Amino acid sequence: MSNFPKDFLWGGAVAANQCEGAYKTDGKGMSLVDILPDAHHGRWDALMHPKEAEKTTYDFYPSHESIDFYETYEEDLELMAEMNFKVFRTSISWPRIFPNGDDLEPNEEGLKFYDRLFKKCRDLGMELLVTINHFDTPLALFDKYNGWENRKLVDLYLKYCEVLFKRYKGIVKYWITFNEINMLLHIPFLGAGMDVSGLDENDALQKKYQAAHHQLVASAKAVKMAHTIDPDCQVGCMLAAGEVYPNTPNPKDVWAAVESNREGYFFIDVQARGYYPNYALSFFDQNNIKLEMESGDLEALKDTVDFVSFSYYSSRLISADPEVSAETGAGNVFNNLKNPYLKTSSYGWQTDGLGLRITMNNIWDRYQKPLFVVENGMGEKDVLTDDHKVHDDYRIEYLKENIVEMDKAIEDGVICLGYTSWGCIDLISAGTGEMAKRYGYIYVDRDNDGNGTNKRYRKDSFDWYKQVIKNNGI
């Protein structure tokens, strides 16, 4: 038996900046990712030193063409519909609508693209879950204001939101204000369009939390605006989640895990509860962080989200012992201790399906708001056979383990709206800029250097996920 409700929203997720390409087509402005190279040319260093990256000319920019979703979206969406998708999560590229971020009028050609994309989704029977800012602040706002460090971005973002809410009233039912908002603390360039390199730790912390305040105010005001313009839509926040476990029962390790979990929950505490939690105020005081606020900011925060969405790939492990912590390994943005009880992928990621159940229960207990699992998946180096097959049993195993535990979380009493696994079609990795790290059910014939036919092929996981949706999780 399945615990998934009959109206559970099964689907998949992509992001404009990782799949659309067409980086200057139809009046689009430059996005943050458009200056970033691939992993071979030092993508991570570019992310940490974006002003230097902007001055550098690289041999290859992955985002410029990506998988050409801007041109292939109809074919791609039809493949997703073949898998029985009930919902499609994508994002709108802010610089495709306002090329410089502060333009007087929106770019009509950019809006027309999303008109076509969204109509195709609806014609195929898919609901839309749309992220308003998915690591896609216009590059011009980075150059002019250092991104979200500047208060001006609140009004510019809200102007952008107003265009979207009015244009897509009755079309987009679910909105997310910011993708993985807590990533602002770890990758400030992608998360907030800002550069803090060259600053000492305290100054960098001050700027990041000031930017966080601006985003939190903008998010709350966007929630209020959306409900005013379209009372039938729902607006959510999004956390890069994954419960942090203590390495040992040592109380110091347990406390380190509490503090690490709070670092991420801080953002959602504000968005879901409507105020700054006491532990955050204490942290600001201890670190001499003084937030500049305008009159009415704290009142504005009281407009809370309708649902809490999150990404989950694995749990994390932490130690308070500096010698033990020095042994951390790969794990996307978060470096983790290796958990001896978990399996490890070729990219160093560990598989923890039960961790999803734990994470869902903790988020539900904390906020009592409906959840939406909007990213989950396994990045691996898939092999396309001579007969154009991809035998990705490892992905099926990972997804099955996670979906089984999601089912159990719902049985536990957690209310969950839906599940959109990440990268349902292969796309460019945000962290490394490569194609080789694939997540999709649909293989895209394109390599790390942009070579290939760009043709689409169904993987084994395609047929498997099609049956999962058809049988509502059974």
TrEMBL record:
Keyword Hydrolase: yes
Gene Ontology BP terms: carbohydrate catabolic process
Keyword field: Glycosidase, Hydrolase
SUPFAM superfamilies: (Trans)glycosidases (SSF51445)
UniProt GO MF annotations: beta-glucosidase activity
Keyword Transferase listed: no
Signal peptide: none
GO cellular component terms given for this protein: cytosol
Superkingdom of the organism of origin: Bacteria
Alphabetized Pfam families for the sequence: Glyco_hydro_1
InterPro entries with a match to the protein in the record: GH, GH_1_N_CS, Glyco_hydro_1, Glyco_hydro_1_AS
Active site: 375 (nucleophile)
Stored PANTHER family: 6-PHOSPHO-BETA-GLUCOSIDASE, GLYCOSYL HYDROLASE
Similarity comment: Belongs to the glycosyl hydrolase 1 family.
UniProt name for this protein: Beta-glucosidase
